[in-house]
Fold this sequence. Notes:
By secondary structure, chain A is an all-alpha fold. Chain A is about 70% helix and about 0% strand. The longest helix of chain A has 23 residues, at about 15-40. Chain B is built from seven helices and no strands.
Amino acid sequence: MVTDQVLVEQAKKGDIEAFSELVKRHQKMLLRLGIRMTRELELAEDIVQEAFVKAYQKLHMFEERSSFKSWIYQITMNTAKNKLRKKRYEHVDINNVSISAQASSEKKLCQEDLKVLILDEIDKLPKKQKMAVTLRIFDDLSFKEVAEIMGCPYDTAKANYRHGLMKLRHRFEESSVLNVFKNFEQSFIPKIGQNVLEVDI
Amino acid sequence: MSYQQEKQEDSQEALVSDWWVDYVEWDDNENTNVSVKESLDLLVRHSESDQEIIDNLYKVRKEIKSADPVVAIEDKLSQPQYWEQLEAKIMKEVEETKPQKNEVKNLWDLLVQSIWPWPFRKSNSTFLSKAN
């Protein structure tokens, strides 16, 4: 299999097929990253497209000090941030969620709120910790792969992950997220108002 | 919380929490040692407090995983046609784009050429090689 490095070299010389192969290889990872950052498929597609166009335009500036994977990942993250800034993306405020749903869908609604809460907590982590946590847990990558994408040594990637996970554990304990999930597991259908109040945001 | 406080807290926390997370995330890397894993297994089996923390970490991990927004559209993403279409869409846009010229590099070369002492200019490489 041809390496990314060879494909980049070929693409730099104007081989569009080589660049197409790079798109094929990395679009899945990048789209997932986009969805996680924006929580919208359509917007994530635009971000990935824009990121690849930027990468193609600036390919001559890529000096291969890091891997192509790491470079395109950083471009996608920055593109997503800019898009979100422009869009003034508003996170769903758990206090403003309208409680007009039927009792049968209350559980689902509450679970969705908790997912939003968890994602918000992940968003609050320092950049590198967030990156390590999402790559490891969401993408199921080994620490070696995480380190490659983050462009840092193996131990640094692992340390960032440790700090991130421990912080999340503390925050979830503080906000009773774990208890609420435990209740769900026991098939307890919560009364939305009460449980939202119990989750100390 | 100030940066310094946070850093101090992080380092203190790291001292005690390293092995819990490493245990949960046991990574089959060449640096990891099987005998260490066995020792930790033994430790966890005989310490209720450590067992509780490790259970909580597994739970946190599980809940984070379940909150992944990608999971909700995984069916769509598992279709090969979806990726073919996305790739075609991206490549259409790429093909309409021209790669930027390396203007910064060109400017830098120009600057170097204009201020560099004459014998060291790139165009005088023959002179340099002779001199060396």
